[in-house]
Amino acid sequence: MDWIDKIRRVKIVFVLTVIFVAVSSLFVSKTLTDNLKREEQGRMEVWAEAMKSLSKADGNTDLSLVLKVLNENDYIPVILLDRRGNVTDYRNVSLRGANRADSLRDARQLALNWIAEGHVIRVTIDNVDNSYINVCYDESLILKRLTIFPFVQLAVVVIFVVLAVFALLASKRAEQNRVWAGLSKETAHQLGTPISSLMAWVEVLKEEYPDDTLIPELDKDVSRLRLISDRFSKIGSKPELAMVSLQEVLAHVVDYIDRRTSHNVVIRCQLPDHDVMVNINAALFEWVIENLCKNAVDAMNGGPGKITIVVTDSAHKVAIEVTDTGKGISKKNLKTVFKPGFTTKKRGWGLGLSLAKRIVEQYHKGRIFVKSSVVGQGTTFRIELRK
């Protein structure tokens, strides 16, 4: 369909655009981070030279310039260690020691960590006695935040993409639902006129040929068409639910399927001794069981085989399991059996199970799922309804 192709193209363009923006943004952030890191390293080299000039200051040294360079560093953490590894000074470092000795010990540990990371500049004070100090520094708070920023940015982009894709999928599902509802109602409308005409002709035939045994069967088929039309008309609308006997609903379905299925296929029901009352729309729920039974018959290729319908009634829910002895469902198809268009038959639109899921979950607030399936042995579908 054209609208599906358009949505697919829009999704592809959107995803490519988001990827391009994300990659470009990460590249720019990485470039800025690298530039700032090099700039801070250069500042520390200048600061180290200023410390060297201050330690060797004489009458010709411009102390105002040296002090200005030293005092301009108000954001890069720095710790000075002498040749013996003792802390001589530090700035832009927050220490929480209980006393000065504890603070100096913490500062020394920080400095050693920075040395291990390669953040140290050795400043030679006197070449004669090999006197020097180690200027140990760390990345500034701004640089650390900027380093983390690309990951935060990437997380925001991922969240944005997920939300956008979710919105597109929701829009697609809403569009599909509108198409389904419109198609169902139009089908019901188109069937209405010929069904009404057939009903009138059946009444005429009953009067003209009251003893004909085929006319009652014809009447049943026309009633069946009217039921199908009524089911289609309910798709897309909020169905009316009522307390009905589950035994009666299943009896109608079994009778209908049994009369239209090969004698090689046996249908059996295992029901509780008491009457199970459920709040459902009988016409739509019968449609669900019919679809499961028809799929079971197709899975057995006409038999021989067996369909077993088991009902369990508990305090909070009613469960219906439909089990067949057919060819089973492969593991790769278990997650797609309820999607529109999925079918393993040569003919058919693959809408039966999708309709069943919609009726059970959206209209009856229940669950339907494949409980188990073994290729070559059979499949069990389970429906759960809350009481």
Write a brief caption for the model.
The protein has 387 residues and is α+β, with helices and mostly antiparallel strands.
How is the topology of this model organized?
Layout: H1 2-55, H2 63-72, E1 78-81, E2 87-91, H3 100-116, E3 120-126, E4 131-137, H4 141-208, H5 214-234, E5 242-245, H6 246-259, E6 265-270, E7 277-280, H7 282-299, E8 305-313, E9 317-324, H8 352-363, E10 367-374, E11 378-386
Helix pairs in contact: 1-2, 1-4, 4-5, 6-7, 7-8
Structural summary, described in words:
By secondary structure, the protein is of the alpha+beta class. Helices cover 55% and strands 18% of the residues. The strands form 3 sheets. It has a 5-stranded mixed beta sheet. The chain has a 4-stranded antiparallel beta sheet with strand order 2-1-4-3, with helices on both faces. Helix 1 (2-55) runs antiparallel to helix 2 (63-72) and helix 1 (2-55) packs antiparallel against helix 4 (141-208).
Question: Keywords for this structure?
Answer:
387 residues, alpha+beta, five-stranded mixed sheet, four-stranded antiparallel sheet, 8 helices, 11 strands
| Poorly predicted ranges | none
Tally the helices: what do you get?
Answer: 8
Work out the oligomeric state of the chains in this entry: single chain
| Termini Cα gap | 41 Å
Specify the overall morphology: rod-shaped
Class derived from helix and strand content: alpha+beta
Largest sheet: 5 strands, mixed
Helical percentage: 55-70%
Widest sheet: strand ordering: 6-8-9-11-10
H/E element string? HHEEHEEHHEHEEHEEHEE
| Total beta-strand segments | 11
Please report which band the strand proportion falls in: under 5%, 5-15%, 15-25%, 25-35%, 35-45% or over 45%: 15-25%
